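Lab channel / #folding
Pinned by the channel admin:
"Please post every new chain as: sequence first, then the structure tokens as a reply. Keep commentary short and put observations after the output so the thread stays searchable."

First post following the new format, from NK:
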Amino acid sequence: MESLRIPILKIGDVLIASIQTTLHDSSAVQFKDDLLQRIFETRARGLIVDLTAVEVVDSFIARLISDIASMAGLMGTRVVITGLQPAVAITLVELGLELPQVLTALNLEKGLAALQRQVEESGDGAR
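Reply from TO:
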């Protein structure tokens, strides 16, 4: 069975990935690989991962979200996670996962605005 691929949109120098389905281990790993490859190919300065439709995560998916944020940061991409449901936020905290240097926002619109402010304030004009 082929794993479902999560679409990754590019708007300017920002990538947006909105997870609209339940992530299983294989589709989550594929998503991580696809996302990191797109960051490399596009030299994206920002990444928004929208989790609005994700109601619950297990420890593997929670760790993968944290890993994606860390790996994207190492590649020089600022990360914003949007739309965290209460159960997902609780799981991340209970698992002890920290997301240093990751912004969070209530929704995609606020996340995009926060990311744009952060990039402008940092003066990350050249890549």
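NK: The first helix runs from residue 25 to 42.
TO: also worth noting, The mean pLDDT is 90.
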